[in-house]
Design brief:
The protein contains 15 helices and 23 strands. By secondary structure, it is of the alpha/beta class. It has two domains: 260 residues, Aldehyde Dehydrogenase, Chain A, domain 1 (3-Layer(aba) Sandwich); 183 residues, 3-Layer(aba) Sandwich (Aldehyde Dehydrogenase, Chain A, domain 2), CATH 3.40.309. Helix 1 crosses helix 7, helix 3 packs antiparallel against helix 6 and helix 7 runs parallel beside helix 8. Bound molecules: nicotinamide-adenine-dinucleotide (NAD).
């Protein structure tokens, strides 16, 4: 049995004041594997006090000192790469394929932030004035369970580059992953109090971060529902807020695309992180005239996809993080059937031989109408909706007919045509002809997918407050 019974405050792993204990449950077996002792409001306030004290000196560090900290962090993260990947697989059932990619992205993201910091102008001349970009203050960072350490590393490397200090509240379902990343930050030799981690519940630790007047900014990743609660609470002390929220991303296959190549890629985009990804391409828009051909290829692709043990290198879809998440996905499959969508493959119930864990069948609905709930609401599981369209204008109208606007994908043999379509999409990121990540390009949502951007210069500016000095 594992026991996670420390939080990281003021440079030390300490016993929390909080006494609530939660079970740690394996998503593969639903067996208890350990316990976590959660922090509370007192722990959060202690962490904020430490971060506020550390800000006095950390905010004055030079660019070179911050680069040195980030370089040390990158080297520590690199030395723990295997542990970081393995604990994702073990704790929430992230597939080995996905988890290894996230670990590599963490290293790339730190490297990208080092590059950005080398060239960033913290003092600019604007008009006849000097504009100084100074660190915003103590940042409260609230994180979901679905790629926990990836989000933590992105946000904290940006905070360090800006000269901010931080209190991180990861999901209570990510405490084992948090332990490993907290050790990495500890071993990176940052001054005490610069980075603090408090495990705890959203309505306890998260709520304290939201209302604490000594926190200047909240960087949140999670659901749109919780993002709205945080934004409303944060306004009382006029905190700066960046919100990375949900998505229902369209993936448009244009009529000139090679279906044999693009349909399998589109399925991988939908089943990213076993479908538990904000950027998953869960609405596949295909020309009406090619629907039958797409259905055939999609079905054949999914028949060959491995749903199973996340440790296996060839597993594409692992378990859902929890029983609750499993029930949620199953419920949406029932809704899809009730709404009259055609079930192409998968459906209700656990796959044969995987009855113990939170496994869902890799599922595709076809002939879906965009106004159905399964096409509008974030399911967060391996459920793809194939939606036929008549022409390019119709495809664009369907793609943008959503309250979300986080991500989109376009596949076409004609790159210029794809770019023209991309310019009309209401989405913070559009990938053309594949799945890719760029650690220097902004990431964030249009509409109810969020406020603000992360990564690169756009991300760094969110952690800085401009001060103009005139005369
Ligand atoms: P969630 O919104 O339920 O929880 C996210 C975090 O907020 C957790 O740490 C939780 O404890 C905390 N929280 C909950 N209630 C709170 C409150 N009242 N005050 C303060 N904090 C509170 O999300 P989740 O289920 O952990 O993750 C899945 C969601 O995250 C999906 O909607 C997904 O789209 C979204 N997400 C978005 C991105 C992005 O970059 N846009 C990335 C990953 C996940």
């Amino acid at each position: 049995m594992k026991a996670i019974n420390k939080i990281y405050v003021n440079g030390e792993f300490v016993t929390p004041n909080g006494t609530e204990v939660l079970d740690i449950i394996s998503p593969v077996t639903n067996q208890k594997t350990g316990e976590v002792t959660l922090g509370d409001e007192v722990d959060t306030r202690n962490a904020v006090t430490a971060a506020k004290e550390a800000f006095k000196t950390f905010s004055k560090t030079t660019r070179e000192e911050r680069i040195a900290y980030l370089e040390k962090l990158r080297s520590v993260v690199s030395s723990r790469a295997k542990d970081l990947t393995d604990i994702m697989v073990e704790e929430y059932g992230g597939t080995f394929q996905f988890s290894a990619m996230v670990t590599q992205n963490m290293l790339n993201d730190i490297s990208a932030m080092i590059d950005i910091l080398k060239d960033f102008d913290f003092e600019q001349t604007v008009g006849s004035s000097k504009v100084y970009l100074q660190p915003v203050g103590v940042v409260g960072i609230i994180i979901p369970w679905n790629m926990s350490n990836g989000f933590i590393v992105t946000k904290l490397s940006t905070a360090i580059a800006a000269g901010c200090t931080a209190v991180v509240k990861p999901s209570e379902m990510s405490v084992q992953q948090t332990q490993v990343i907290a050790e990495c930050f500890h071993n990176a030799g940052l001054p005490k109090g610069v980075i603090n981690f408090v495990n705890g519940l959203g309505d306890v630790v998260g709520a304290e971060i939201t209302r604490n007047p000594d926190i200047s900014k909240i960087a949140f990743t999670g659901s749109t529902t919780v993002g709205k609660i945080i934004a409303k609470g944060a306004v009382d002390s006029m905190k700066r807020v960046t919100l990375e929220l949900g998505g229902k991303s369209p993936n448009i296959i244009l009529d000139d695309a090679n279906l044999k190549e693009t349909v399998p890629t589109a399925i991988f985009a939908a089943y990213l992180n076993s479908g538990q990804a904000c950027a998953a391409g869960t609405r596949l828009l295909v020309p009406e005239s090619k629907l039958e051909e797409v259905n055939e290829i999609a079905k054949a692709t999914v028949q060959n996809i491995k749903v199973g043990d996340p440790k296996d290198a060839d597993t594409v879809v692992g378990p859902m993080v929890s029983k609750k998440q499993y029930e949620r996905v199953e419920n949406y499959i029932r809704i899809g059937l009730q709404e009259g969508a055609t079930l192409l493959i998968g459906g209700e119930g656990k796959p044969h031989g995987l009855e113990d864990g939170n496994f869902v069948k890799a599922t595709i609905f076809t002939n879906v109408k965009n106004n159905m709930r399964i096409a509008q609401e974030e399911i967060f599981g391996p459920v793809l909706c194939i939606i036929p369209y008549k022409n390019d204008d119709d495809a664009m109208a369907i793609a943008n007919d959503t309250t979300y606007g986080l991500h989109a994908y376009i596949f076409s043999a004609d790159k210029e045509r794809a770019y023209r379509m991309a310019s009309q999409l209401d989405a913070g990121r559009v990938c053309i002809n594949g799945l890719s990540h760029d650690s220097k390009a902004p990431f964030g949502g249009f509409k109810q997918s969020g406020i603000g951007r992360e990564y690169g210069v756009f991300g760094l500016e969110e952690y800085l407050e401009p001060k103009a000095i005139l005369g």
